Amino acid sequence: MIARNPKTGKQNVSINRLQRQGPDRLGILILPRDLSQFYAAAEQAGEPLDVAIAIGVDPLTLLASQAIVPLDCDELEIAGALHGAPLAVVKALTNAVRVPADAEIVIEGRLLPHLRELEGPFGEFPKYYGPAGRRQVVEVTAVTHRAAPLYHTIVPGGLEHLLLGAIPREATILAYLQRNFANVLDVHLSLGGVARYHLFVKLRKRLPEEAFNVIGAAFSSHFDVKHVVVVDDDIDVHDPSQVEWAVATRFQAHRDLLVMPRSQGSRLDPSTDDGSGAKMGLDATKPLEPGERYTVMRIPGEDTLDLDAVVRGPLDPARLGEP
User: Fold this and answer.
1) DSSP track, 140-203
2) pLDDT digits (tens, 9 = 90+) for 263-291
3) What percent of the chain has pLDDT over 70?
4) 141: how many CB neighbours lie within 10 A of its CB?
5) Do the Cβ atoms of 13 and 28 come closer than 8 Å?
6) C-alpha angle with apex 132: 127 to 134, nearest 5 degrees?
7) Domains and CATH numbers, the chain
8) Of 175, 165, 223, 215, nearest to 33 (Cα)?
């Protein structure tokens, strides 16, 4: 979904769920982000908001659409940066929106002001159905496509849906945290946390309570972040079993748990009250002076052993006759 800010003309790119309501009507779910601000400004002026829906774009452009950037930063420019060259765009036929020139299908339309129609239920990334509600409406003004176009859709809650949200969001969250904590080394939005709600942070800890400051910053990096686990720099945050091991052996709830009882979360999390819920942070790091009790077990020679070679082993003709 590509829209232009009615005040500045700058574009925003997002992925939205769209439900066919009729021959020229689409229901849409708009979350409280850039598109919602564009629509609110147009609706306040009593005007429709021109949009275009590009279907079948390249993977880098899809990833760029999910970057967390300031208002009026056009994600198609980020797509060009990822490609290493400006992204080719063309003007839509019925409005001024610019769309990727290589898209397979483009649906042009207008988000109508002061109109709400029933949309949903619809499958979403938490692997539940998002509830039905009275939501905004897109009036279709034109459809263009390539000869024999490829129709690409995203299966709700599937791996593609999760990764499209996680990969660019991880990059943005990492940069956000490192602006205040240069010793944050890596982050990961786990698939078990639907690639939105559970954030693992690798930290080279310098101060005793520093992990709690990092947790607070992580909560502010995006309102979808619900649970944060901070681990030491010997833990691979992309390996859930290592993160779980750190929680199991380096965390005590009475000492290392931070709970924010009231905050804004994801409205698609069914355990919240329409998005209002709690957040939780776990400091699963070792003390700065851990002592011998935190000495990790090592088997002598395991770092240099070529296990595959040992398992395969050389075929020794002298042993072929052995039972």
Assistant:
1) EEEEEE-SS-------TTSHHHHHHHHHHHHHHHHHHHHTT-TTEEEEEE-GGGTTTTEEEEEE
2) 989 988 899 998 899 999 999 999 998 88
3) 97
4) 18
5) no
6) 140
7) 2-145 (2.30.110), 159-289 (3.40.1670.10)
8) 223
